[in-house]
Amino acid sequence: RISLSQTGQHVDYTLRVVFEGRETWTLRKRFNEVAALHDVLQRRLHDVPELPAKSMVRHFSSEYLEARKARLSAYLKALCKRRDAMNCREVQEFFGLTTQQPAFAQ
Questions:
Q1: Cα dihedral angle (32, 44, 27, 14), rounded to 10 degrees?
Q2: To 10 degrees, what angle do helices 62-80 and 31-44 make?
Q3: pLDDT band with cut points at 50, 70 and 90 for residue 91
Q4: Does an H or E element contain 46, and which?
Q5: Over the stretch 8-49, which tens digit does the pLDDT of each residue have?
Q6: How far apart are CA 93 and CA 55, in angstroms?
Q7: Contacts of 54 (CB under 8 A, 6+ apart)
Q8: Of the candidates 22, 38, 23, which has an alpha carbon nearest to the alpha carbon of residue 94?
Q9: What is the pTM assigned to this prediction?
């Protein structure tokens, strides 16, 4: 689940991570962090889901932000359904698995 908060000149997205249906934690990410992960995955995996386009102009209207939030949520959920993506160390780090789950810290 993603929520958002506008702080100054950027938007933070709050991600609620649910691990194996039992444990949850939250993370704050900016769009550029999602885009950086996407770039890594495009080099490693086939048929990576489409990331919402980067905006050349800062759009902080509530309609734009809500639409982007929905697209980011769909993108991240699609990644989480893929075993090949979840096996990537960068994805595990992005979602905080390496700090929240001892088995992933190795």
A1: 50
A2: 30
A3: very high
A4: none
A5: 677 889 999 999 888 999 999 999 999 999 999 999 999 999
A6: 25
A7: 31, 35
A8: 38
A9: 0.84
Phi, psi dihedral angles at 2 (to 5 degrees)? -120, 135
The closest of 44, 51, 40, 39 to 78, measured between CA atoms, is 51
- What local confidence, expressed as pLDDT, does residue 56 receive? 63
Instruction: Tell me the two tokens of residue 46.
Output: 């086939």
Counting every residue written for the chain, the total comes to 106
Q: Which amino acid is at 87?
A: N
Rg for the chain (alpha carbons), in Å? 14
Of 20, 16, 21, nearest to 69 by C-alpha is: 16
